[in-house]
Amino acid sequence: MPTAWLVVFVLAVSAIGYIAGRRRALNSAGGDSRALHSLPVYYGFNVALSALVPSLLVLAVWLLAQPMLVENRVSGMIPAEAIPESSTLGLVMSDVRRVAEGLDIAVQQGALSEQEARAIRADVTDVRARLGDLGVALGSDVRSEVLSAAQRYRQITATGHLLMTLVVAALTLGGLGFAYARTNKDFRARNVVERGVLALLILAASLAILTTIGIVLSMLFETVNFFRLHSWTDFFFGSTWAPNFRGDSELSILPLLWGTLYISFIALLVAVPVGLFAAVYLSEYAHGHVRAFAKPLLEILAGIPTIVYGLFALLTVGPALVRVFGRGSEGLLGVDWMSGATSVLTAGVVMGIMLIPFVSSLSDDIINAVPQAMRDGSLGLGATRSETIRQVVLPAALPGIVGAILLAASRAIGETMIVVMGAGAIAKFSLNPLESMTTITTRIVSQLTGDTDFASPETLVAFALGITLFVLTLGLNVLALYIVRKYREQYE
Amino acid sequence: MYDTAKTESALDQTETKISARNVQVYYGDTHAIKDVNVEIEDKTVTAFIGPSGCGKSTFLRCLNRMNDTIDICRVTGDILLDGEDIYDPKVDPVQLRAKVGMVFQKPNPFPKSIYDNIAYGPRIHGLARNKAELDEIVEKSLRRGAIWDEVKDRLDAPGTGLSGGQQQRLCIARAIATEPEVLLMDEPCSALDPIATAQVEELIDELRQSYSVVIVTHSMQQAARVSQKTAFFHLGHLVEYGETGQIFTNPEDPRTESYITGRIG
Ligand SMILES: Nc1ncnc2c1ncn2[C@@H]1O[C@H](COP(=O)(O)OP(=O)(O)OP(=O)(O)O)[C@@H](O)[C@H]1O
Ligand SMILES: [Mg+2]
């Protein structure tokens, strides 16, 4: 029975449970719903959820755990000498899985009977050719260890699947029976459902947190692998970024960090004044209808995919800057300071444009949170509007605005697409904003795209870069949230 | 107490400071002030009394155009300050508010130091030529606001860190630091203990020597103690306006009488 059918079965049983639970509760109260402890629907939900939740949970865990367990069992069957010189256990196991899959397909299509699939032998049949006929391509000839491991794999998987079906079905029916038996008019179904809802919410929240932890851990493992292969002093304190595949790469984060920070700085230089002034205009001067129209418009700007901004940088802003700062006597300024469209300035300006709505929308919220009484107090003393804004509203909103700017900075540091397209690929320390430079995110992309070998430091360095970036932006975010939150408390 | 006040006011009765004619105020479709006519005299304390929601604050805010900051608020009729229409397009509301100061119903100190709170108005209007003069203005205002002794050692502490009553007195001190000609006070004593209340009332009495003061209050005793003129508002109408002694001893309108004796409110 495929898993989908199992899920349908569970759902159907719970639907029946809902109706049955509801009816039983009503019957126990003699048909008078006022005599029940809870509303009739709660009895229904209690029975339905009792059938549904435990079985689905077990199903989910089982589906996750079974392949790992099976793999573990089967990989024990492969002797160390069966692993070829150039290969690893992992690669052999992926062969095993493919063969097992191929046999499954063969059985499904009727090319082999179940018995044949079990009894097939590598020294008698050319397994590779037979599976190839069915559209399952194998890289090399199937050796007998691999074939028997694959057969064992299939067998354990089939047993596990059967067991899972039985357990899940039993849990469904058991949950239904248990909850149904408890249903009577005095049973506090409402409180039980309430607890069930709570558990569900906690589960969702912890899933989000667990995923984050998982991401960090996986990065951490690869980072540790990287530092086994490459010295950490070079990574953190070196001065050159020069990966090569001869094995003597210099992989220092500092030139990349410099590029990242420089571009982010220029982006903030663009975004903060413009965003802040826009926010002041929107929250303090604009009439209701202008605001109702302009604010969503600004927020649409925030929804543009960053790759579009990247195109804008590459096709519009970069060439425009070259026209101003480059081309010698043909250029607008008659200088030849800029040769290519990609530069720190190009990426910084476009990233700044991307951040404007982010800064303005956050600052606007924060400025609006300053109580009207504050403004009234100032206006009542004969201050003008701009005096009020400069001397009362902005100082009161300052911590929140600083928080917004830090959030914007952390977005700038983590931004990828714009710098990939607009900043260039040369890692260096330079103060000239018209030169192209590269950032941490661009290097991560370039180290991981194309043919990669996950055992070389040139590839693994991406994870070390990634985790450094993560720590950097996390730190900025935590700081920003701390400041924003502290400021919120002032007026509550 | 109001007996002496009455004779004094009879002596001082010089000229009209603010005169309102046929004033109507609308908040969107709500008609909050209906056809109010009133003459507020110079060097006099005028009390506005009336049940909650009758429009006292609204009318008070008309007198220095603070209602301009509320989008949906619309004012018609004439309000003259020293004979000049304050709603005339020629009039700069910013300058008007410097002349007609206001203490709000809820204390609203700025999130700045106590010193900067008081110095805010004088700085904006350039009232002090140097730091020493500014210090002097701050000290004088805080003394008149009956809060100097409590804050003189912590002028650098934030004004928002004071207690509610202290904040209220800080706001009073802040309003008088700009030397307005008219001071509008919206329930200035609602958060104060009896001692601070007495001090503020003393201040109001002192201010009367040079300014015109309008005070909104829910305390009949306070109105009787500090004011020479009283206006009774009810449901947006100015029901009765006259000498405080007259209103409290011998009101003409039955609604005034029932409010003062505690039957409506
Ligand atoms: N900003 C506003 N928007 C809409 N309606 C308002 C606004 N301010 C006041 N009102 C309405 O105007 C009327 C008068 O309000 P106002 O604040 O002047 O009363 P008040 O006499 O000061 O009352 P209280 O003694 O409780 O302070 C009330 O009905 C109120 O609902
Ligand atoms: Mg009021």
In short:
The complex is a heterodimer of chains A (492) and B (265). With 492 residues, chain A is mainly α.
Structural notes for this entry:
The complex is a heterodimer of chains A (492) and B (265). Chain A has 492 residues and is an all-alpha fold. Chain A has 17 helices and two strands. Chain A folds into three domains: 3-187, no CATH class; 192-227; 241-491, MetI-like fold (Orthogonal Bundle). Chain A has a two-stranded antiparallel ribbon. In chain A, strand 1 (241-242) and strand 2 (250-251) form a beta hairpin. The longest helix of chain A has 41 residues, at 189-229. The mean pLDDT of chain A is 86. Chain B has 265 residues and is α/β, with parallel strands linked by helices. In chain B, 39% of the residues lie in helices and 25% in strands. Chain B has helices at residues 2-12, 56-62, 93-99, 114-125, 131-144, 148-151, 164-177, 194-207, 220-226, 244-249, 254-260; strands at residues 16-27, 30-41, 45-49, 73-81, 84-85, 100-103, 182-186, 212-216, 229-234, 237-243. In chain B, the strands form two sheets. Chain B has a six-stranded mixed β-sheet with strand order 6-7-8-3-9-10, sandwiched between helices. In chain B, strands 2-1-4-5 form a four-stranded antiparallel β-sheet, covered by helices on one side. In chain B, a hairpin with a 2-residue loop joins strand 1 (16-27) and strand 2 (30-41). Chain A binds chain B through residues 287-288, 371-384, 387, 391-392, 395-396, 490, and chain B through 64, 66, 69, 71, 94-99, 101-102, 104, 106, 108-112, 120-121, 124-125, 160, 171, 174-175, 178. The structure holds adenosine-5'-triphosphate (ATP) and magnesium ion. Magnesium ion (MG) is lined by residues 56-57, 105, 186 of chain B. Chain B: One of its GO terms (biological process) is phosphate ion transmembrane transport. Chain B: It is a peripheral membrane protein.
